[in-house]
Design brief:
Radius of gyration of chain A: 19 Å
Number of domains of chain A: 2
Structural class of chain A: mainly alpha
CATH superfamily of the largest domain in chain A: Tetracycline Repressor, domain 2
Number of helices of chain A: 11
Helix content of chain A: 55-70%
CATH topology of the largest domain in chain A: Tetracycline Repressor, domain 2
Oligomer: homodimer
Shape of chain A: globular
Number of strands of chain A: 0
CATH class of the largest domain in chain A: Mainly Alpha
CATH architecture of the largest domain in chain A: Orthogonal Bundle
Largest interface: A-B, 47 and 47 residues
Order of helices and strands of chain A: HHHHHHHHHHH
Strand content of chain A: under 5%
Distance between the termini of chain A: 40 Å
Chain lengths: 206, 206
DNA sequence: ATAAAAGTTTGCAGCACCTGCAAGTTTCTT
DNA sequence: AAGAAACTTGCAGGTGCTGCAAACTTTTAT
């Protein structure tokens, strides 16, 4: 996936990206076919035509190749968050900060839908997927604390980030369940709106 | 921990509980001292005076001995949830359903605070801790869907359980950070109240 | 162009995690 | 007391993952 062949940088970096993509792709395909523990790292490496040792030069575990590290997301989210004026309510600021990431996911929807399908079929991966964003949560919590100017023992910033993450995850799972037919941003907006309204009983205003 | 020696059942079950407690206790103590990957299953078993093979008769992984399985919690939560009349708003119903579990945690606070400290010091355990409640979330989502009578493609039940879980987790982390000095139920109530109010900016009403 | 430098891949040795199986030991039942 | 049932243990073996050193490839400098 993402075989866009961006001609940036030299041959070395291009090859690295190719190898990485080949490993991710092979891992997802094989696990989708056979299930998580019916696939060995050896087989994945074989399918990507590299040695098993090389696999571990790219990923620290089999799971990581499947769920991705998405470490770079933190910075982008924080960067956008910094541009949102402080008068904007925290929830809305968060929704804006997540938008670029959502758009990228939708652009890579084939990869992401396969990834989410694999996670759905192998529940032990779900915590790993969540874990990937734990560092992002930590950093956004700090940023929010600074933004709102509350004390460090106040629970508000952590609560907002945790709840935001939860709403985000639910939207993504619904997106996956719909096979990508519903626009992701819409699902996220809906979830955020429900949270902002205090999660009222849907029977009151269906 | 929990060395209450309840004289229920026969000697066999008593010994099983003792062995299990000894393993959990040894695991938490050693990992708190040295760190997760500086402790082997062999050493934990040694400290509990059983063979390494026996360790795996009790826990399917090293992590499980540390975070606990808390599989039994699901049923209790669901049972309480079933007794709450349907007119009660979902968030409030959830708060009530979680109360027994909270009280038990506070009763076992020494164990839980150590466990949470170990998790905080070894972030790779966090996913495992979350994994324990993923099944509970799935089941409560179903129960909530039945309770509120919304369609299966509606996001509301999943959103409420996910957000509830997030609020719960934040409260627990604050509890742990306070060293158990703040009452857990109070922290949970505060978090739930904030969610029910739609997470308003705390500057508006500090 | 050539050589040195820097980065990447690979095999190998090795430890730790985890599982199935069969034999031995303890507890329960009658 | 004897047999059934449950628990513990050792052993063999596969897989995950890491460190190290040797080969190889790409980049940089001369």
């Amino acid at each position: 996936m993402t075989i866009v062949e961006d001609a940036t940088a030299g041959r070395r970096d291009r090859k690295k990206r190719q190898t990485r993509d080949a490993l991710v792709s092979a891992a997802l395909r094989l696990v989708a076919e056979r299930g998580l523990d019916q696939v060995t790292v050896e087989e994945i490496s074989e399918a990507a035509d590299v040695s098993a040792r090389t696999f571990f030069n790219y990923f620290s575990s089999k799971d990581e190749a499947l769920v991705g590290d998405q470490a770079g997301d933190s910075e982008r989210v924080l960067a956008v968050l910094a541009t949102v004026p402080p008068e904007v309510p925290a929830l809305e600021a968060f929704r804006l900060a997540l938008t670029p990431m959502l758009e990228e996911m939708q652009a890579d929807s084939a990869l992401w839908l396969l990834r989410l399908k694999v996670v759905a079929q192998n529940p032990s991966l779900l915590p790993r997927l969540v874990a990937g964003s734990v560092e992002t949560e930590r950093m956004t919590t700090e940023a929010l604390a600074a933004r709102t100017g509350v004390g460090p023992d106040h629970g508000y910033p952590a609560l907002v980030t945790a709840v935001t993450g939860a709403a985000f995850r639910v939207a993504i799972i619904r997106w996956s369940a719909s096979g990508g037919s519903l626009p992701l941003t819409e699902l996220v907006d809906e979830a955020f709106a429900a949270v902002a309204a205090g999660l009222p009983d849907p029977r009151s205003a269906a």
